[in-house]
Amino acid sequence: MSSHLRLGALPVFDAAARHLNFRLAAEELSLTQSAVAQRIRELETSLGVKLFDRLPRGLALTMAGRRFHSRIARALSDIDQATREVTGSHKNTTLTLSVPPSFAAKWLIPRLAEFRQAHPEWRLRVHATESLANLHQDGVDIAIRQGRGQHDNSLRCLWLSGLERIAVCSPRYREEAGEQLDRLDVTDCMLIEDAHQGWHTFAAHFEGIDNAERLWVNHTSLAVDAAIADQGIALTPRLLAAQDLANGNLVALCGLPDQGEGFHLVYPEARRRQAEKIMLPWLRMQLND
């Protein structure tokens, strides 16, 4: 560690890294935006490393910044937990998170053990639903929502990840379809349609969509499972298929950019600390892995 490193700059860096925005970090810390920017510049100078790329519409962590933040976030969480333990305020606390069912099944649930390890003092209650929970009345603390982030003005909304949609099938289905899928012709294929009914958005990429047979399911996770089971071609956000693509259970045929859509963290002001200090750092760390 540099002898000139100011430890007080680390919470400022943590807030800026979570929000990827100096203004929002300043609001959280009750500082001015210029003060936050100055602290970050001093920290980068002290470390001799660039932590952020300054972009026209915000910030992006550099690779060094991502590595540094993953360690600093854990350290600050440990300090916070130790403080609550020594002051007698340490207790199990329940946090209710509303998420789309397919996001829960394909992304969140496989990572819950890591959340418990990172935050043993919190009990996470997952409420999987397609309905938009009322975060003021339904007993839900925080939500992860899919879309363009246009929500109730009384709620805060932070971007988590883009929503690139891809068409996927099993390697076996791809091999059996052969040359026909080489041409992206799905005339004789089974298209798996979920509640989003998104196949029409791929009309410019595939031939024969209107004539293809359909298998209907009500959740994207079921569509993905059907594709893994050699039953046809499914559409899914890349994020939800990433593990199955990496494991070789699925292959991607083509994709569409997110077009401004994505997954967002949504919460009321009363849950700001839990959202920004607990959920947001953990979610972004997992998404960057």
Automatic annotation (TrEMBL):
Q: Where is the HTH lysR-type domain?
A: 5-62
Q: Which UniProt keywords apply?
A: DNA-binding, Transcription, Transcription regulation
**What CDD domains does the record tag this protein with?**
PBP2_GcdR_TrpI_HvrB_AmpR_like
Q: Does the keyword Phosphoprotein apply?
A: no
Instruction: Give any Pfam family that matches.
Output: LysR_substrate
Q: Kindly list the GO molecular function terms attached to this UniProt entry.
A: DNA-binding transcription factor activity; sequence-specific DNA binding
Q: Write down the superkingdom of origin.
A: Bacteria
UniProt GO BP: DNA-templated transcription
Q: Enumerate the InterPro entries for this protein.
A: LysR-type_TF_proteobact-type (IPR058163), LysR_HTH_N (IPR000847), LysR_subst-bd (IPR005119), WH-like_DNA-bd_sf (IPR036388), WH_DNA-bd_sf (IPR036390)
Q: Which family does it belong to?
A: Belongs to the LysR transcriptional regulatory family.
Q: What is this protein called?
A: LysR family transcriptional regulator
- Lineage, please? Bacteria, Pseudomonadati, Pseudomonadota, Gammaproteobacteria, Oceanospirillales
